[in-house]
UniProtKB/TrEMBL annotation:
Name of this protein: Redox-sensing transcriptional repressor Rex
Region described as Disordered: 236-346
Regions recorded as binding DNA: 29-68
Residues that, per the record, bind NAD(+): 103-108
Highest taxon of source: Bacteria
Single GO term (MF): DNA binding
Organism: Nocardia donostiensis
Role description: Modulates transcription in response to changes in cellular NADH/NAD(+) redox state.
Comp. bias (Low complexity): 236-248, 314-335
Cellular component, GO, one term: cytoplasm
Location in the cell: Cytoplasm
Amino acid sequence: MTEQHEAPGGVSRALQKDIPQATVARLATYLRVLAMLADDGVAIVSSEELAVAAGVNSAKLRKDLSFLGPNGVRGVGYDVVRLRARVEEVLGLADGHRVVLVGAGNLGRALAGYRGFRRRGFTVVGLFDNDQALVGTEIHGQQVRDARNTADLTADVAALQPTIAVIAVPDDAAQPVCDALVAAGVQSILSFAPCALEAPPTVEVRRVDLAVEMQMLSFERVRNADADPGSVAATLNEAENTTAGENNSGTRSVEHRSAATSGSIGARPAAAETGDDAQNVSTGTATAGAELADTAPTARSLAGPGRGTRRLPATHAPPTHAACAAAQATSHSATEPTSKGSVVTP
């Protein structure tokens, strides 16, 4: 592993500015897995286990975590609680966030009732709508406030002092709502309206277009359906033949060396050397050697203060923790932004 000893101090703001958006998106995924591990009482997790659960390779995970500064212990792994706190600090979650929702329709009600927000540090403090039938009613513990007058909306939102606002209104109402939120001093806005919103450079607006995500899934479905099963099978057969040829070549080479050195002191039996060569060829064709150079190839027992004896799995083995296995089953890949103004939802 490339983990290093923990160093005192947090992550500087300068370092936070250097973190790529794609890495920030994956950090959010790592945080979800770390929270599950902490809930299960897991004290230490290896980079391989965390990477598998998050749906990325271990080399990318270690590179992402390197932006957080020195962390972990070489050859042991990451302290779950400490790494979770570090990721929360970088993502600005240490103090939590106050969230207002504008739009109490089907989507707004679903968002207001989502329990995962509070578990991850986001507390809904206000719910607004312009439907008089909804104003004054209570939805998931929040009384719906009147949003018909933009001046009143601005004043009410400012009084709640939110750090994040969510827009869940139709296209034609999205821009006026955005203007009211900006006037209230909100600098972070998440919009579920498909239209592009105009805001000052100091205001970060992220757009989630569910229809675009469905269209991308439709494209992938068509592309996968057009794949020729025969060509796929031929590719697999070619790969198998290549591997078999490499194994045979390695065997012949080893036999030749064994015959040439049979009279030398310390020469190994040909059969044993052939087995090692075949294993090396198989490993080399499966994964990049550079990516596995710093990982432990065999399982070993670990015990330390605050945790029971556990075993590290062999390289790229399935996750041993229940939380990791659950996260792997529900996560295909880490969320990554497609552009500055939009984000792909998993």
